[in-house]
């Protein structure tokens, strides 16, 4: 893929090294995909869950902000390796584990991203189909079929076309979801009881740390395995500090506000705390005017789809990194087919298969190794060694 090709051209690049003439973008462009993939209504649940650690409102606020920012700071740091190595994250692990050894994290990343894609897509389908039924546009199986076609179809198209279309889609999703999110913040403001903020007693330091680590595992640490996938096209002279800042800021800012809003709702009303913790999409919908239901659903679905799009793309790259000889487009299509199967069989998957949620145990252990080798080192990667099959 060259710089002359447009957004609607299919990405020809797989896991091979990005050549100098193919490099493009700026560190600031990383804001769009990371914001869009993390503007999820489910972030509000962490506000209610944080209070469940037995800590005060302000303690929970501090610990959730620290947990979100630090965890995504790791994503930003690992993103530097994408610029230096010009290759997807799982290919870069070959510098640490060797070509054969890197198949282990590649396989784990493939499983994790597939599981997350199925989970996010399923939730988006259910949210969209539920809204279709509530506004009277259909009932029964039809809304679910239509929702599946729409959600999976958009994810598949973005995944197959690849990097350029994904970056453009994420920019649009960021703008749309950002504006609508501000709207429902304003509309739900009247349900917040500010006098209740100081009514929650303070907790112990271990409880605070437990809350912080809990938030870290649920947010940034779940993205370390694909961090470099979206920075590998950046020019070699791109600022390392800019890469870290825009990745961290883009991924953190929406979550910080959503969690804080969830905290405000949870501390205001015990029933709301339970509802926000169990069903944030439904809880927020219950306090919004009916006319805002469709815009609100757009935010919920687009946020979920954005994460699913990134998982679909990175899942295909992880499969190729493992050594499977397929074109990138075929790998993305295969992932999409498995996602459709997961959506159709969601009841079985939710009851009997426990996907790796949150994405911590398999990837965090190798994150420090990658940072030490790829970030603290002054030299770029040996392209021949990384691409050896």
Question: What can you tell me about this protein's structure?
Answer:
This protein has helices spanning 31-36, 45-51, 57-85, 89-92, 94-101, 103-134, 142-161, 163-187, 205-218, 240-268, 270-278, 280-286, 293-322, 328-344, 346-352, 361-374, 383-387. The protein is mainly alpha-helical and 389 residues long. Helix 6 (103-134) runs antiparallel to helix 13 (293-322). The longest helix has 32 residues, at 103-134.
Give a concise summary.
With 389 residues, the protein is mainly alpha-helical. It has helices at residues 31-36, 45-51, 57-85, 89-92, 94-101, 103-134, 142-161, 163-187, 205-218, 240-268, 270-278, 280-286, 293-322, 328-344, 346-352, 361-374, 383-387.
Topology record:
Layout (H helix, E strand, L loop, with lengths): L30 H6 L8 H7 L5 H29 L3 H4 L1 H8 L1 H32 L7 H20 L1 H25 L17 H14 L21 H29 L1 H9 L1 H7 L6 H30 L5 H17 L1 H7 L8 H14 L8 H5 L2
What brief labels describe this structure?
389 residues, mainly alpha, globular
Instruction: Estimate the strand proportion.
Output: under 5%
Number of H/I helices? 17
Q: Strand count, sense and closure of the main sheet?
A: none
Distance between the termini: 22 Å
Global Rg? 21 Å
How many strand elements?
Answer: 0
Point out poorly predicted stretches: 355-379
- Binned, the helix content reads 55-70%
Series of secondary-structure elements, N-terminal to C-terminal: HHHHHHHHHHHHHHHHH
- Kindly report the oligomeric state of this protein: single chain
Structural class: mainly alpha
Mean pLDDT: 82
Q: Assign an overall shape.
A: globular
């Amino acid at each position: 893929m060259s710089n002359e090709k447009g957004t609607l051209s299919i990405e020809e690049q797989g896991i091979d090294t990005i050549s100098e003439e193919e490099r493009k973008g700026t560190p600031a462009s990383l804001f769009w995909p990371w914001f869009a993939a993390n503007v999820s209504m489910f972030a509000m649940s962490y506000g209610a869950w944080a209070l469940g650690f037995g800590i005060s409102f302000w303690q929970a606020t501090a610990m959730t902000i620290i947990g979100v920012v630090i965890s995504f700071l790791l994503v930003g740091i690992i993103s530097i390796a994408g610029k230096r190595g010009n290759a997807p994250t799982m290919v870069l692990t070959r510098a640490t584990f060797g070509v054969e050894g890197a198949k282990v994290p590649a396989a784990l990343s493939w499983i994790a991203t597939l599981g997350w894609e199925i989970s996010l897509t399923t939730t988006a389908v259910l949210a969209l189909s539920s809204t279709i039924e509530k506004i009277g546009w259909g009932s029964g199986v039809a809304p679910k079929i239509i929702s599946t076609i729409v959600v999976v179809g958009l994810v598949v198209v973005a995944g197959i076309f690849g990097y350029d279309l994904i970056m453009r889609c994420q920019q649009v999703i960021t703008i749309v979801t950002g504006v609508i999110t501000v709207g429902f913040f304003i509309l739900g403001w009247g349900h917040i009881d500010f006098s209740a903020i100081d009514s929650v007693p303070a907790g112990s330091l271990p409880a605070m740390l437990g809350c912080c680590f809990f938030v870290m595992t649920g947010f940034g640490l779940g993205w370390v395995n694909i961090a470099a996938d979206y920075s590998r096209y950046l020019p070699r002279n791109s600022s390392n500090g800019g890469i870290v800042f825009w990745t961290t800021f883009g991924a953190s800012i929406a979550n910080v506000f959503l969690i804080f809003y969830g905290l405000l709702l949870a501390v205001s009303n015990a029933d709301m705390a339970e509802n926000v913790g169990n069903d944030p999409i439904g809880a927020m919908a219950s306090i919004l005017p009916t006319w805002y239901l469709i815009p609100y659903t757009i935010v919920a679905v687009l946020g979920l789809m954005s994460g699913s799009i990134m998982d679909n793309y990175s899942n295909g790259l992880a499969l190729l990194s493992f050594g499977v000889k397929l074109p990138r487009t075929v790998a993305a299509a295969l992932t999409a087919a498995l996602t459709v199967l997961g959506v159709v069989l969601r009841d079985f998957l939710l009851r009997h298969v426990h996907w790796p949620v949150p994405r911590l145990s398999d990837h965090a252990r190798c994150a420090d190794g990658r940072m030490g080798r790829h970030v603290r080192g002054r030299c770029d990667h040996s392209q021949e060694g990384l691409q050896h099959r």
